[in-house]
Amino acid sequence: MSLAGRFADEEALVTAAAALRAVGIEPLEFIAPHPVERLEKAASPVPVIVLLAGLGAFVASLALQIYAAARAYPLDIGGRPYNSWLAFIPTAFENGILLAVAAGFLSFLILSWRDSPVLEAPAEGYWLAVRPEARSALEAVRPISIAELPP
Amino acid sequence: MAVPIADKAATLALKPGAGAWWWWAFLPSLALTGLLAVAVSWLFARGIGIWGNNHPVMWAFDIINYVWWIGIASGGTFISAFFFLMRVTWRTALNRIAESMTLFAAACAGLYPILHLGRAWFAYWLVPYPDTMGLWPQFRSPLLWDFYAILTYVISSILFWYLGLIPDLATLRDRAATTGKRLLYGLAACGFRGRGEQWRHYRAAYGVLAALMAPLVCSVHSIVGLDFAGGEVPGWHSTQFPPFFVFGAVLSGFASVLLLVIPLRRVLGLDEYITERHIEVLGRLMLTSSLCVGYAYVMDAFSTYYGGDAAERHQFLDRLTGIYWPVYWSTLLFNVVIPQALWRRRIRTAPAILMAISFLVVVGMWFERFNIIVGSLRRTDMPSAWGDFHPTFWDYATLFGTVGLFFTGFLVFVRFLPVISIFEMRELQATGEPP
Asked: Which residue of A has its CA nearest to B189?
């Protein structure tokens, strides 16, 4: 179980989180109707995953095309080089983007399904969740109301 | 602001019955979709002989409609991805409508490459797979690049649109009155709760996807241009085609966004969120892209005469004065001349006039592709291979059938999903900026 205090807006939420940290209490989680960049603890790994997936798909696609055109089924078209890799870049680019977008979407889903100390969040409004022991500290930062969240 | 956006957009999506206007729009669209189903079934049964395409005009409505729809689709991606990256605030009220337009337009476009194959059931030959004869697709061909571009564009547009919807689906789940709706919206929301951890990954994922969609939309239209530039047909074989196609795509894209937004804000009562400012900005964008297209038309004429190729010159003269001269001159009139009225602020803020101009632009862009495709193929290098094109009933049935398919999908979206991004509007309101 955890406790959540409701705040009026983003500004009040950020101020309250700072006040709690000042007295040595790390909020478990915040809940908001939109992203609050100032409360993010670290950069998300999603961009790195997307970069790796995109580059990986680009290289793999280029390699497959070169293999197909120069090794598996070389076709002489007017004496042009078998490995005409410049012509393979558009397809490799599109394949890279496709895999990057899919990786971005899936990594967001998987990362946001991860276990969290706060699973059931209130539906609307700005909330700050703390451990039940920290009730007095939460009350001290003057939330509009306090709710008990199921574990 | 009188009504918070979350209440307005969520109520619109959750209310039990659709308005009369919705049925008046939906039923004709559904009927046209039925016509498309008939046309496609007949096509699969009889083959592409039911269309007017024949030697030498082997590409006609199929490719015109394909390029037209994929161009319309681009408008939504530009608004949602480019202007997101530039942190433009006016985008927020429009991006959901624009992106949904992209989704259904791209779906309509995606049909045509499959339909025009003739033997559609061999479409999987475009994919490299280990077949028994050791054959591979021709990776050097722009037509194959096009397949990968469309595939990537359709799938990425769906994922980007859906990612943008997830927080709003969570809001709808929390507000739905019936268990059935709560279950459906809840499943679609993928467990999104608005927790800090989720927002952290969400913000990163959305930003990166926007950064991928922006170059993707340019590459897709460039590759569509290369489909033509890669062919040695007078009027096609030109290095300006990739940017020319991107210009044309955004022009028709912005015009289509206006065509949808102006009536929607009226019937849904969204004037408070989609304001005169949004309409005016879209008018400016349409003017800018119209000037770009005008430049491309001038360069088209210039390179024809500067290049000095007799077949090119003859083909160009045929566009200007041949039997299709009304199509060529209407293209110029609708896409370049009439949009010049948008220099005046009074015109940019008059919804009815803006809608009329947008409609003409959308028609004009279809004409432009007719010129490029039919106009070029009917006058190739060899006079012995000249010929004409006569569209059949099934050509028109497929064209208007996809218009029906587009509106059917779009109206279902308008009915059941929030037409304005709730969480982005809340974020904008939290920072105190005007929508």
From this structure: A109
Contact assignment for A97 to B423 by CB distance below 8 Å? no
| pLDDT tens profile A77-120 | 888 899 999 999 999 999 999 999 999 999 999 998 876 767 67
Question: A15 in contact with B at a CB cutoff of 8 Å?
Answer: no
Question: What is the value of pTM for the model shown?
Answer: 0.94
> B1: pLDDT confidence band, cut at 50, 70 and 90?
very low
Checking if the pLDDT of B432 tops 70, the result is no
- CA end-to-end distance (rounded Å), chain B: 10
The two three-digit tokens of residue B70, written as one number: 């994929």
Q: Give buried/exposed letters for A106-144 (b at 16+ CB in 10 A, else e).
A: ebbbebbeeebebeebbeebbbbbbbeebeebbeebebe
Query: Residue B134: which of A10, A73, A93 has the nearest Cβ?
Result: A73
Q: Tens digit of pLDDT for each residue in B318-333?
A: 999 999 999 999 999 9
Touching A: B residues 192-211, CB under 8 Å: 192-205, 207-209
Which of A3, A122, A35, A2 minimizes the C-alpha distance to A14?
A: A35
Give yes or no: residues A96 and A67 share one domain.
Answer: yes
The predicted complex's ipTM stands at: 0.93
Residue A65 in contact with partner chain B when CB distance is under 8 A: yes
Residue of B7, B140, B227, B433 to mutate for A, most A C-beta atoms under 10 A = B140
Tell me if B212 and A101 make a contact (CB, 8 A cut-off). Answer: yes
Q: Is residue A37 part of a domain?
A: no
Reply yes or no on whether the pLDDT at B2 is more than 70.
no
Superfamily of domain B5-121+137-153+213-430: Formate dehydrogenase/DMSO reductase domain (1.20.1630.10)
Query: What are the phi and psi torsion angles at B57 (to 5°)?
Result: -90, 80
